[in-house]
Amino acid sequence: MADLDAYPDTTAPRVVLVEDDVDLRELLAHCLSSQGLTVATAGSGLELYQQIAKEPADIVILDIGLPDQDGYTIASFLRANTNMGLIILTARSRVDDRLKGFTSGADLYFVKPVDCRELAIATINLARRLATSPEAGEAQTLQPTSSSEPWILDSSRWSIHSPRGLPVRLTAKEFDLVVALTQEPGRAVDRTELLEKLDYANTVQGSRGLDALVSRLRRKIEAAVGEAFPIQTVHAKGYLFSAPIKQL
């Protein structure tokens, strides 16, 4: 049987398998684990969101027919808000279903029944490609609007205000990220230091979680205030807050 021994330069990818059929879920989880993958399981969209909130995965293997939310909707959410790989595993075999799956953001589309060894190798290869691809947003970082006014970080309200005074509420993780990047303005903060301060594991998964957090925060603030948030990617280093900021 093929397993991770065939891929000596690849650490075990973390997979979340989303399948509402309990027997099939347990069978697939056991089989994928036997191929060297680290597998967590979920029986619904809600359980998936809870899983990835605790720890981002490398790959999500997603059934379409879930009890609480349409799988295509989940796929679109994952593609828009995370950098995780996405494999759709479903009984729907029509061309229109496949097209809808890929349009929703799937990297791969498998039709049940599936050979577990084939699924495992496809998962490993996808995780490898994602791990070696350029960081999300590195080539697409928007330039902040030029302004002599500083951004303002309000610790009492967990919010940040743009130079034009527009406020954006931050989650705890987003707030901690901004604080970590602005303790020494203009200094590039090392990725390892950020992982430690934000309580991410110093692993491929943890690093991907950090990148996803930065990407989401950039999009959130741009949408709210109409200008790019000045977190810049510093190649082979980490991240830099590249604008004046005042902390209240």
TrEMBL record:
Q: Where is the OmpR/PhoB-type domain?
A: 143-243
- Name under which the protein is recorded: Winged helix family two component transcriptional regulator
* Residues in the DNA-binding region annotation: 143-243
- Domain Response regulatory, which positions? 14-127
Q: Please list the residues that carry the modification 4-aspartylphosphate.
A: 63
Transcription regulation: present as a keyword of the record?
yes
Q: Which UniProt key words apply to this protein? A: DNA-binding, Phosphoprotein, Transcription, Transcription regulation, Two-component regulatory system
Q: CDD domains this protein is in?
A: REC_OmpR, trans_reg_C
Task: List GO terms (cellular component aspect).
Answer: cytosol; protein-DNA complex
GO-annotated biological processes: regulation of DNA-templated transcription
Q: Which organism is it from?
A: Nitrospirillum amazonense
Q: Which GO terms describe its molecular function?
A: phosphorelay response regulator activity; transcription cis-regulatory region binding
* Keyword DNA-binding found: yes
| Origin: domain of life | Bacteria
